[in-house]
Amino acid sequence: MNPTIFPQPPQGYRPNVGLLLFDMRGLVWIGKRRGFNGQYAWQAPQGGIDRHEDVQAAALRELGEETGIGPSLVSVIGHTNHWLTYDFPAEMQRGKMRLNKGQAQIWYAFRFLGSDRDVKLNAHKHIEFDAWRWERLEALPELVVPFKRHVYSQVAQEFAHLAAA
User: Fold this and answer.
1) Architecture of domain 13-162
2) Are 55 and 66 in contact (CB under 8 A)?
3) CA–CA gap between residue 62 and residue 46 (Å, rounded)
4) Structural domain boundaries of the chain?
5) 159 FRET partner, CA 20 to 30 A, in 17, 85, 101, 139?
């Protein structure tokens, strides 16, 4: 596997991957963030890219950490060629978040080749999600926190050809 070369992320943004996991029907996996309730508790898996880590390797690592789904259960069906960014709201700009004004993301689309039984939310010591479901891609922007909504709208447009009709 040859790593894809991406441009450098914009200055001041933490390099990150976002993941869309499509089932065979064209629906997308979405998880409810652990400890959060309410309208904006849902999001797709995402996470930081370690220093010197290949972007696709980071995407597969994050998928495994957050869903328990290993690389043998997915195939890559697409990715963005550019960084999508969002800024952290003021109330989040403390602690480790204060080091960056937001996150820059490369998004990967994977086809899920396994079954629902292969999802193991407790596979990693840091549990990210406490529930999950399959959802229509175009519904995702309304389910995520407002400061990420524009990124999810862009992702929904970019990967619409992979989604359920």
Assistant:
1) Alpha-Beta Complex (3.90)
2) no
3) 7
4) 13-162
5) 101
Whole-angstrom Cα distance, residue 31 to residue 45?
A: 7
Cα 96–8–162 angle (5° rounding)?
A: 95
Residue 9 in this model has a pLDDT that exceeds 70: yes
Q: Which residues contact 118 (CB under 8 A, 6 or more apart)?
A: 68, 69, 73
3-state DSSP call for residue 72?
A: helix
Average pLDDT over residues 41-47: 96
d(CA 149, CA 27): 19
Percent of the chain residues past pLDDT 70, beyond the cut? 93
Give 57-105 pLDDT, tens digit per residue.
Answer: 999 999 999 999 999 999 999 999 999 999 998 877 666 556 789 999 9
